[in-house]
Amino acid sequence: MSDEILSEILRNANRDNLFRQIIVRARSKGTLVQVFANAHDMESAYEGYVLDLGDDAFQLQEVDEEGQFDGIITMSFREVTEIREHSRLLCRLQVLREADADVDDEIEPGDEGEEYTGGDLILGRLQMAVAHETLINVRVSSSTDYRFVAGYVRSIDRDFVQFNALTESGNPDGVATVRLRDISAVFEDDWQIRRALKLYERRRDLYGPAEFDAYQAPGE
Length: 220
Hints:
Layout: H1 3-13, H2 18-29, E1 32-36, E2 46-53, E3 57-63, E4 69-76, E5 82-85, H3 88-99, H4 121-132, E6 135-141, E7 146-156, E8 160-166, E9 172-179, E10 183-188, H5 191-202, H6 210-213
Antiparallel strand pairs: 1-2, 1-5, 2-3, 3-4, 4-10, 6-7, 6-10, 7-8, 8-9
């Protein structure tokens, strides 16, 4: 599918901010939604409850195929191609959650006490990752690139974000610098991040600070 056709689909689909209206309704009613937001894999989707909403992005408490909570995703509206409600899959996930007597998870909003506007929801999650030194995974989307970068946020300035990057197997992988405007989604505390974190912690005796500090950010 060409970029021109995809752009037209997105413009028509989100006419009159319909995506935002659906997300606002799902948040107020506490209902599950299924969000398609991967221009390179139109079959890929995320299911979950809306936690927070900003001017350009929203936050989703993801639910896995067994109806269990699995991480938080903050994604830009510009990436969304489709939102489904009341589908067979969502009804099934809702039944699984209601039928599981051991489920005591509560849907909570994002961390409080941090000052950032709704328009900076993605930036706010990056700042939160700095404050709490948490491992995150971000999706970088541009007209020429589409990839994921996992790691600890090293620094944030007006235009760029730097990460102490990790591989999927938890190995330090230098410093990654990406444009802030190209970050379209932030993934936190899902099973892939937890796996990488465990592997990284097991390798703490094998890697010292020099593994990261061998690459210095400009101006340091």
